[in-house]
User: Which sequence fits this backbone?
């Protein structure tokens, strides 16, 4: 498959689809739906719905082009042995991690709320990466997976922009990966954090990476397929 140009900021990026992975961060019911962890923290979870359709467009484009697709889920073991007390006890949520909720125990692996929203369900063979923290590299085998697939570019989307998406991009940047955030396929409970988070990624000539959008990503992959 031919190398193509991805329209992005602060400048366009030459993309080799064979060395590119789509990483969809934490599009889970616990963050996007009422009754989950996001709402227990006092957030308006409806704000995250803006990312669902752009994520779906990016996912469909990646599948058509045969890219490596990685879905992440933040959550913890049922005994909370991987949940630091500083995380579990922070703030004053209406329910804490591990408490029972309308979608099962909150942010616990295997519970309904921990699962990815149905419209973005992983296809057979796609990587589903369970992580205990914000970044997708922390305490996971993501680095090994990317190395085996000879990946050099990460297209990152999901929620939330300034927390798990940003942390993953920073981690990837430090490890030498070219990281691109699909801005419209990311979202935050705080619109200003979303805006500033994207600005931070592309500032200073792309200090952490690039910012593009789902349509530009799909267009670039389509061009690569037609040129093949």
Assistant:
């Amino acid at each position: 498959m031919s190398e193509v140009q991805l329209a992005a900021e602060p400048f366009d990026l030459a993309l080799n689809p064979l060395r590119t992975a789509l990483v969809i961060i934490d599009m889970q019911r616990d963050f996007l739906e009422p009754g989950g962890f996001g709402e227990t923290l006092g957030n308006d979870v409806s704000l995250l719905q803006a990312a669902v359709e752009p994520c779906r467009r990016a996912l469909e484009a990646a599948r058509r082009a045969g890219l490596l697709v990685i879905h992440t889920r933040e959550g913890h073991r049922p005994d909370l042995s991987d949940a630091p007390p500083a995380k579990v006890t922070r703030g004053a949520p209406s329910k804490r991690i591990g408490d029972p909720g309308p979608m099962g125990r909150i942010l616990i692996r295997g519970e309904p709320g921990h699962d990815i929203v149905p419209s973005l369900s992983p296809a057979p063979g796609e990587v589903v990466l369970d992580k205990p923290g914000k970044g997708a590299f922390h305490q996971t085998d993501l680095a090994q997976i990317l190395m085996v697939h000879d990946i050099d570019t990460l297209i990152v989307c999901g929620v939330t922009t300034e927390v798990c998406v940003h942390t993953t991009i920073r981690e990837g940047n430090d490890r030498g990966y070219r990281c691109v955030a699909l801005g419209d396929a990311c979202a935050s409970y705080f619109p200003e954090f979303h805006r500033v988070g994207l600005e931070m990624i592309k500032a200073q000539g792309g200090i952490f990476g690039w910012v593009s959008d789902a349509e530009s990503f799909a267009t670039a992959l389509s061009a690569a397929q037609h040129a093949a």
In short: The chain has a mean pLDDT of 96.
